[in-house]
Write a structure and sequence with these properties.
single chain, 3% strand, two-stranded antiparallel sheet, mainly alpha, 2 strands
């Protein structure tokens, strides 16, 4: 956990960031979500949710909770730019071999296509 000798009002900061979740620009909403995810990683889920619950609607809370389940947070690169974690849906398959099978996708209706293999040249 990070510690600092600087005093600040965490609740006010979280409320200001949360207000950006309603911004008209998707990039602003994305950065606000990532900032809150970083705060959750540093200060804990319960502490941050305590500030968010009274001011954020139920749908937004569900979306934030989904994001908070991922442990990936933005990092500050040496060149000073912020690198955000890659967005991968939780339903995306994990492929660990060069062969793609229907079991990777959880689809049993495509049993005729059980494995990908390149066509041999004629």
């Amino acid at each position: 956990m990070l510690t600092s000798s600087i005093n600040f009002d965490l609740q006010s900061i979280i409320q200001e960031i949360a207000s950006l979740l309603d911004d008209s620009k998707s990039k602003i909403r994305h950065v606000a979500t990532e900032a809150l995810a970083t705060a959750v990683k540093i200060y804990g889920f319960t502490s941050i949710m305590e500030f968010l619950m009274p001011i954020v609607d139920d749908l937004a809370l569900k979306i934030l909770e989904e994001r908070f389940k991922s442990s990936a947070i933005p990092i500050l690169r040496q060149d000073g730019l912020i690198e955000f974690p890659k967005s991968v849906p939780s339903t995306a398959p994990v492929i660990s071999s060069p062969y793609i099978t229907t079991s990777s996708f959880g689809a049993s209706s495509y049993s005729a296509y059980t494995e990908f293999s390149p066509q041999k040249p004629i």
